[in-house]
Specification:
- The complex is a heterodimer of chains A (about 325) and B (about 625).
- By secondary structure, chain A is of the alpha/beta class.
- Helix content of chain A is about 35%, strand content about 30%.
- Chain A is built from 9 helices and 13 strands.
- In chain A, helix 4 packs across helix 8.
- By secondary structure, chain B is an alpha/beta fold.
- Chain B contains 29 helices and 9 strands.
- The chains are: A alpha/beta (about 325), B alpha/beta (about 625).
- Chains A and B meet through strand 7, helix 5 and helix 9 of A and helix 1, helix 7, helix 9, helix 23 and helix 24 of B.
Amino acid sequence: MILSSGSTSISTAELECDIFIYALGFESRSLTLSRFAKSSRIIALKMPEYRIHKYIENVSEAEFLGHHIVHDFDRFLRIELNEILLEHQTNDLKIYFDISSINRVMMFRVLAELSRLCRSNYKLKILYCPAAFSEPDWRFPQIESLGPIGPEFSGYNADPSKPLCLILGLGFEPGVSMGIISQLEPSASFCFWGTGSDSRFDQAVRRANFDFEFTGFNTRTISYIVSDPQGSFQMIESLIYGLARNFNVILVPMGPKIFSFLAYLLALTYPGDLAIWRAQQRRIQPSDAKPDKNAVYARLDIPTLKHRAEEQSRMLGQVRS
Amino acid sequence: MIDHTSALFDVYNARFLEPEKVGSNFVASPFLDQAAASVNAAILGPRGSGKTTLLKMLTLPALLRWDSPKKVGFAESLDYMAVYIPASITWSAEYRSFHAPKQDQESLSLLSISLFRHSVLLSLIDTWMEASNPTLLTDVALSRFHLPIEDAKEPAFARELARVWELELRASSVNGLREAVRDRVRLMQRLAVRCAYGVSTAADLLDDAPFLANHFLDDASAFCDFLERNYGFSFKLALCFDELEIAVDRVAEAVLQAPRSIDQRLLIKFSAAPFVGVAAGTRQPAMPTQQNDFKLVFLSSFSAKETRGFSEALFASVCHKHGVRDSVDDVLGNSFVDDAPADSTQTSDGPESIQGKKYAAAGNYHRKFLSLFERDPSFRDYVYRKSINITDLSTGSEKRRAADIRKIIWPVIVREEFLFDQERQHPSSKVRRRLRSKNAISDIYTGAGALFAICEGNPRWILGLLEPMVHAYQQSTSGNASVKRSIQRDSVERMTAAYFALLSTIPSSSEAQKIHSLVDLVDKIGMYFQGSVLGTTFNADPVLSFVVDERVPSPVRELIGKGINIGAFITTQAPRLGAYHVGELGGLKVRLANIFAPRFKLPLAGGRTIGLSTILGRSQEIENLTLLDLFGTKI
């Protein structure tokens, strides 16, 4: 599913493309990669308005730079994206999608549309700018709700009588992973934590997750390299392959956005069987994320992506009809 | 069946264990007989209190593997065959509709109840299979429940059940029945997706899938008919519904009303955390009550001393598993709890001479009393006022000691431990009143008795906290020394930290009195209790429990309920006159779980009770707690 991946300095990153899509929100890193992008069409998906941190500056800068700001996200997916793609007559369109500041639900929807609309000879690259380390907010967030990201990610073909296995992407929100495990009481849990960017993050993730000691629950903790989406995907995919026969597997992506991107690819790999859930948290104020020096990229195998997206769509069509 | 989980990891939770394994490891619970009585029963207790174990112990595979002298008499007394029915939120249709604004609640309820119904069908099939095990014939007390499934009869049996349960069989066998149920479940999951997209209404669903209207009690009755017809089966069926608190409201409602089933061949037993939202929110006549519909079995004990016997037995079984033959005190060492009464109101039951030694000069109590007497002027005043002979606490009768000394042991221990500078070397140097480090766990919370008190007799906590210590003891190269206090302190600290994390994630709708979460509420109450024990003036009878009174706002009551469910608050059972309604909180006497004692520097004992509204009204405003506030940078 991923042809190649890696990490490169932002200043030297290859960011020349036909269409560059990013999320315009309150994070300091929101526009970072777009500033280096060499593209005739830069699309800014305006996030829900939250006037904190750099929100106002970011919107002003995007307007100043002439980015195409998308105010109606639903319409963009329904009509506009397709029109934009059709405008380009070329067969080898290069589309870059920066997922750094987007929320998970929007990311999944954009990826789903791109998977559907891209032609086989297009080039689609996912970009991610990891946050520079800053002291995490150690306040305990509350889990407001927990459930599938959408009906298509509900594991509608899975057998709920099988024991439950959770695969968690860990972040540094204090106690959230413990809370999810405690609420769902899975028979087994595999907790993935992203490493390799800054050892202070590693320490923060450890602290927020109580040194990975989930006493009383059956958990295993596994690290993955944030800058190696391809290797990480292969590792998690092979784990799920082994588990799917005996367990009802639910994946809850938290932590770095790149893990959520991998979750989307995994959902396409096991359509109807693997459920992807989201833990919606309540915080008094979300933290800012300043850009680090590097960008992570993953180039996708469009024919495979399209094939799997079509298969998912076909199955879902059967369910809906 | 393959036990996949135990192959992967160690297991602390009975939910993941096959009944056979529960039976082979079972440590007799004092509540087993009550739970097993031939009546409808509500088994209430916080998470980890052993509800699942009790229900699984009623099943044939567990009983078959139970190795205990008590077993034969117990099994012979059963006039029913138990059907264990697990709950899981992943069965709920509501968990398949997140972020789908078009969802129709009526459709989702319909699907959730039917999904649950099919879980009951799987349990009935499993029970029938378990009863077909020929090993039952070798068991004197259980052979009467044997239900053979002969090859020649299996297809007819399967077809008969499929007909009464309205299933479509692909293969006429028991496995075919299971597959038919699973096919149905997949169909319903797809229907849930359609509902989430707004494609189907409840009426459409019922038109397309009439089986959605069927009820699990009718299925159970039909199963009884089937057993009577084919086996002459004359026993009852006990439907044992586990973990009702995690079921969606409509399912919980259906189970709560099940004790009013008119089929006398069915018994209903359900386990739940004490606060079941759907039951608390309604006073419909259909809701069952303790007196009329079921027997109440309450698994938590307000007094830590009551759970000590069970905790020790469970600990002994853990030691046995690790090949450790030494006593509890050898492994964990003594604690102040082993000397001090866990409940300050109770009198001693030991011989007078042994009790006297504890009070004698140079005894543990005496050292603490003398030390506090030197440092705390308010305690000195109290001693003078009560004419206590501080130089020799052993004087006088045991009755007198109970009245004057025993009831204040815990306040004395805690004040002496936390209130004054411990580094003072010379009696003449100035006494400084200050709270010691806010994050450190004190040694008064280590040792066997203290650790058992902190675990509250909760098997999951006992296993989670103490099994690693037994392992450390077994691996230790330092002879027979008990587990180091530093290891015990770290373990308690980690367990407390993880527990706060769990509390922090419990959703709350409360904004009342600036309480945003369960952590806020626990902190407010804990700090109030701390002030009562460690205040400026020595308090012989500090406030350490509360009653949920009428003035407590409803969102806070709901939080208290959630806290009780998760074991953060310990309650006495139904203190009021009249019938207890499942889920009711009003008038309950509640205390903080002992797991919070190290954090708030509280006695591991009971104390005076006041109204919660008073506590909340007098508490100081609190900031949002952070991980670092609670545990510093140690974690």
